[in-house]
Amino acid sequence: MAKRKNQHPDNLDSDDDDDNDPSERSLVNVDFDFFDPHPDVDYLALKRLATQLFQADAELFHLNDLADLILSQPLVGTTVKCDGRESDPYAVLTVLNMHIHQNRPAIRALTEYALAKSSVDPAFHAILQNLLGPAGLASQNHVGLIFSERLINMPVQIAPHMYRMLADEIQWALDDNEPYRFTHLLFISRTYHLSPEEEAEMAGPAPRGKRQKQGAAPPLQSSTSGTYPFHPEDDVVKTIALHTLDYAFSKAQPREEDAFGLDMGGRMMLVSADRLRELVNGLNQAYPPPS
C-alpha cells in the first residue's frame, strides 16, 4: 500500500508529432503516488538516480552502499511513482545522518568530497570542518545529508509535498527517539552552465505543446553567472542557506567547442535544520499545485 496516494494530479504536456498544429495542445493527466522506499524494488532505480545526481563523480561515492543506506530507513524519505508500488521511482527525497553513518563507505566518501570541494571557500570550509571533521563527527552537532533527485521531466510541483512529508517524518522519528536531530542540513545538487550565446538561445520561446525531452536542461532560472540549477527548488533553498558553493566535477571531461550537451557541475548548500519548515513554506509559495 502507498503511504500517501493521489495527493495532487499534475497536467503534463504530451509530446506532439512535428506534423501536428503547434496551436493544438494535448494534456495528459498523471497521478503521482507517494511511497516509502521499498527495499525489494527500488535498489537499482536509486542507483540510477544517484548516478544522475553525481554525474561524472558518481564512481567516487559507493552507490551500492548509498542505495542500501537509503533503503535501510524506509520510514524516513519518499519516492514518487506513477504505476504502483512495484514500479520504479521517478523521484526520491530523503535525509541521511552523516554522523551516525560516518563509517559507511558512501557517507565517508561524501564527507571527504564535501570538505575537499569547499576548500575554495574558506568560510564554508571552516564551518564544514567544524561539523564534519574528526572533532565535529564526535560532537552532538549532527548534519543531515539531503538526497534529492528525480527524472528530468518530473514537475517541480512535487517538491513541496516531498519536503513537507520529510519534515513530518523527521519529527515523528524524533518523537520515537530516533537519531534525526540535526543542527544542519547539507544539500548536494547539480547545475549546468551556459555561455551567453547558449543563454540567448535557450531563453527563446519553446514550441507550444512540446514536453521537455529527456536529458534537456530545465527552464532557465535567474542567474548572473550563467550557472543554473537542474532542480528549480534549489533557488528557494539558496535563499535560506548559510553557504552555497557551485563547483566543477572532479572527473568531468572538458566539453569540446560546439559539442552537443551541457557543461554540468555540482552545488552544495548548507542550511540550519531549524529552517526546514520555512523551506517547506517557501516551496509551497513558489511552486503551488496546478489548479
From TrEMBL:
A Pfam family that the UniProt record links to this protein: BCCIP
Region Disordered: start-end pairs: 1-23, 198-230
Subcellular compartments: Nucleus
Keywords assigned by UniProt, alphabetized: Nucleus, Protein transport, Transport
A GO term from the CC aspect: nucleus
GO biological process entries: protein transport
Compositionally skewed regions (Acidic residues) per UniProt: 12-21
Family that this chain belongs to: Belongs to the BCP1 family.
Protein task: Involved in nuclear export, actin cytoskeleton organization and vesicular transport.
Protein name: Protein BCP1
Organism: Fibroporia radiculosa
